[in-house]
Structures are given as structure tokens and as C-alpha cells.
């Protein structure tokens, strides 16, 4: 299992207009952070897809969050993001090649 800590700063360019008055971190930005974290694992696996992705609560800019990566079956890695003791999102990364 791998645990990575992250924060999306309030001035991140992806937050402009997402959403005025009540900003939230875009899901695509969170997914990108997960793929980057997986890319730093031993052997640097290449992500080729995602399955069973569930968004469970919004993440506010500046709110610290963790990414947990755990091997699953075959060429898959289970992931979850958590903030403030609650799961933000979870799912499965599909990887290229053998693991």
C-alpha cells in the first residue's frame, strides 16, 4: 500500500470558474493526481483506464487529502482519496503490461 499526501492550492488555474462562490476541486484534477501518484510506483506502470470510479463528496481548494494506492488483481491498482476523515473518491486503475 502507498499513501501520498496532497493539497490543491486555492489559486490553482483549474479552479477558475469551478464554481464561483463555492469552489470545488474538479474531479479530473483529482484523477490526474491519482495517475501521477501511480506513475511513481516501482516499475512506473502506465495507466490505460479507470473502472468503478465513485465520487463521494466534494473537495475544497486548500483542503489536504490523501491518495491511497493498493495492488489489486492482475494489472489493477485500487485507489481512494480521503480528506477530513471521509472518502472523497475511490476506484480502480487499469495498468499496461504485467505487474
Tell me about this structure.
With 99 residues, the chain is mainly beta. Helices cover 13% and strands 39% of the residues. The protein is built from one helix and five strands, in the order βαββββ. The chain has a five-stranded antiparallel sheet with strand order 1-3-4-5-2, with helices on one face.
Q: What CATH architecture do you see?
A: Roll
The biggest beta sheet is recorded as: 5 strands, antiparallel
Output the helix-strand order.
Answer: EHEEEE
This entry's quaternary arrangement is single chain
Residue-averaged pLDDT: 92
What is the number of strand segments?
5
Helix content: 10-25%
Q: How much of the sequence is in beta strands?
A: 35-45%
Question: What tags apply to this protein structure?
Answer:
99 residues, mainly beta, Thiol Ester Dehydrase, Chain A, 1 helix, 5 strands, 13% helix
Task: Write the topology of this structure.
Layout: E1 2-6, H1 27-39, E2 47-55, E3 65-71, E4 76-83, E5 86-95
Antiparallel strand pairs: 1-3, 2-5, 3-4, 4-5
Amino acid at each position: 500500500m502507498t499513501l501520498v499526501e496532497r493539497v490543491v492550492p486555492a489559486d490553482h488555474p483549474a479552479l477558475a470558474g469551478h464554481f464561483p462562490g463555492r469552489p470545488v476541486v474538479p474531479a479530473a484534477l483529482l484523477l490526474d493526481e491519482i495517475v501521477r501518484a501511480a506513475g511513481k510506483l516501482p516499475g512506473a506502470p502506465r495507466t490505460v483506464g479507470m473502472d468503478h470510479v465513485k465520487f463521494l463528496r466534494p473537495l475544497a481548494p486548500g483542503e489536504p487529502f490523501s491518495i491511497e494506492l493498493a495492488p489489486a488483481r492482475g494489472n489493477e491498482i485500487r485507489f481512494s482519496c480521503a480528506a477530513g476523515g471521509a472518502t472523497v473518491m475511490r476506484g480502480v486503475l487499469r495498468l499496461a503490461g504485467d505487474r
